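Example record

Each entry pairs one chain with its bound ligand, adenosine-5'-triphosphate.
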Amino acid sequence: MARLTIDRAQKRFGTYTALDEVSLAVEDGEFVAVLGASGCGKTTLLRQIAGFDKLDGGSITIGDRLVSSDTQHVPPEHRKIGIVFQSYALWPHMSVAENVAYGLTVAGVRDPERARRVAAALDLVGLSGFADRRPGLLSGGQRQRVALARCLVTEPSLVLLDEPLANLDVHLRASMEEEFSRFHERTGTTMVYITHDQAEAMALADRIAVMDRGRLLQLATPSMLYREPANATVAGFIGDGMVLPATVLSGPDAGRCKVRVLGVEAVVRCRPDQTAGDNAKICLRARDIGIAAANGTGIAAHVERLSYQGGFFRMEARPVANPNMLLHLDVPEPTPAEPGGTITLAISDGWVIPAETVADLAA
Ligand SMILES: Nc1ncnc2c1ncn2[C@@H]1O[C@H](COP(=O)(O)OP(=O)(O)OP(=O)(O)O)[C@@H](O)[C@H]1O
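Structure tokens for the complex follow.
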């Protein structure tokens, strides 16, 4: 197991900067998900960690060993890294046991040591009874478990997972998520998990690194990302956040600021160093907006759409005074208004997004 330190990693393809000064420290035994939309640079980052490409600037250290820098490039096979790909990449003509044994055979490990380690790895992923099967006769989830066993058997110091569940159906994904979690708990292996699926990242990771256009925007626990997004991009990307212009009326008191938003005053969470002033932005979640009390003041809005979510409705509504904005909130059955009707909304919570400076990397 090893700590992974990426320091100001740069990667360019021609004039395009795919990695722009990415710095990231993954603790020994930690499970970090790298999350971002397609094209944000996740795979490029993984390829630098694995050593498939050379960096244009910065450095990567695994444990105490500098593996990538201007002057150093340790080849992939000498980095003690295990990789699990979306495509499984199993040999179709070999049995499950032979596939798992492959890395050991290449490394010169012989029986009975090799057979013992293969059996232990298959046991770890719950596939002991499948040693003699060909991969073609396994389900997608079982194939991914073989790929995991094959990666583990070499006792890597770091495991990289590149969208490993992307080819599986929804039900299998959920059970494989549990499998990865249990596996991480049992082995304590340092893991970096690439995904564009935030539910998957939230369910699995100790911390999530959110990337956008080659930059790391925030590295934080799932709950911190949700509660305290560092900037408007993270706020909008994670948890369907609504980002609204606001004025901070008074500075923090017990972690909360008074703000004016959509013409009403509200008390929301903020950083201890938040200052009063115009041009602020706040992030609201669906749960931060509710129906105002009868005769209470609030935000008059036209109901545009209702969609049933099972037990409640997701309502979309446009403020009468700001019709270019679309708010969403969850309302119980029976719904308090129908599409075309008007409703008064109240804000119960929210987060003042810190002024955009450097990405806040504090967890
Ligand atoms: N070898 C290459 N040559 C030129 N451009 C590249 C190369 N590899 C990646 N890119 C570009 O770098 C950017 C980041 O690509 P990358 O594959 O890292 O994104 P990603 O976040 O993994 O996306 P996805 O989720 O779709 O796999 C993209 O704009 C891509 O087109």
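Residues 358-363 have pLDDT under 50 and may be disordered.
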